Amino acid sequence: MADGNISAMQAARDEAYSTPLDQIDVSIGERFRTNTMWPFFERLRHEDPVHYTAESEFGPYWSITRYHDIVAVETNHAVFSSAKGVSIFDQQEDFTLPMFIAMDPPKHDAQRKVVSPIVSPHNLQAMEPIIRERAGKILDELPIGETFDWVDRVSIELTTQMLATLFDFPFEERRKLTYWSDLTVADNETMTEEEVRAELMNCAFYFQNLWNVRKDAPPAGDLISMLAHGESTKDMPLMEFLGNILLLIVGGNDTTRNSITGGLVALNQYPDEFAKVRADRSLIPNMVPEIIRWQTPVAHMRRTALQDFEFGGKQIRAGDKVIMWYVSGNRDETAIENPEAFVIGRERPRQHLSFGFVIHRCVGNRLAEMQLRIVWEEILKRFAAIEIVGEPVRLKSSFLRAYRSMNVRIPARV
Asked: Which letter does DSSP use for residue 153 in this model?
């Protein structure tokens, strides 16, 4: 069974199987906050894997819920386009943020190529000792025998430090990156839309100042310099620049951040697996992709049909919104054995959808895996157990499977 409160999950299961099939809406953010969306996806996979929801908060949409169907949509960019956006949320016409992940070839390929050297094998090798030193310092400063927020003290801090390095961002102001990331993806219940836009424009102007300095300097190895000197990115309009900056902030932050927390959730729910990796740390590289699959930090990606197209026995119309539910495909028992369980030592641990496929495969996937590997190597050097205290506080969002906070307690050092 997926993680979460058992009674709440049973109530969700009752609701999922009693709701008329054509009325099921898997985009409801509250279910992701309570982690009770699983039975709804299970029913769609079994009974209607290409499912149409006529009415939702985000308008009508198709749900693709099986692993191999998601791969088929993901790899058919001639029919299913990224150009209308990559999430179920529609951008406002007066505040549109173009970004290369929401583009089709050839522009997508040209812009992606500009930033891909940041995660070259040579760069990753150079980053590893930096990440290890920082992870060690963060872990050494954690209190023993006291309750603290793992998300803030470990997950956010480590990933934000790394993101500041990738951008060559002023290190003492690195929490601005966390703030802008959260504004981009979170359900901002305390701010108006106008206030969110104003804060994101502050982000644009902050980065524009960094850009202006670096475009007049020789090319360097940070993301801003790469964009400023890239042939296909050096003349981006302001909103496209902001869109790509926010893409890199969220992509460089949220996947790793929520997988660091999600991995701890998994190991607490599966103590035998925790014992297995404590006894044999050589299993950590195999554990990392299992964490990413089990957590699925990006719950979905969107495509828009460019033409009428029959898929899975259903007629999808040109202009229809098509949602690929990675969170469901990663629990598809027709593609992955015993997918609900967290299993270290799977034969094919990288068989998951969390990074996407082909041209839209996450550019930073190897960096994310390396950060997770290092942080767990350093954790197991120091702690035999990390206990979760109470339920994690999750984000109310059907786009990211994210954690706002999670209280933990470390009984002792090794």
From this structure: I
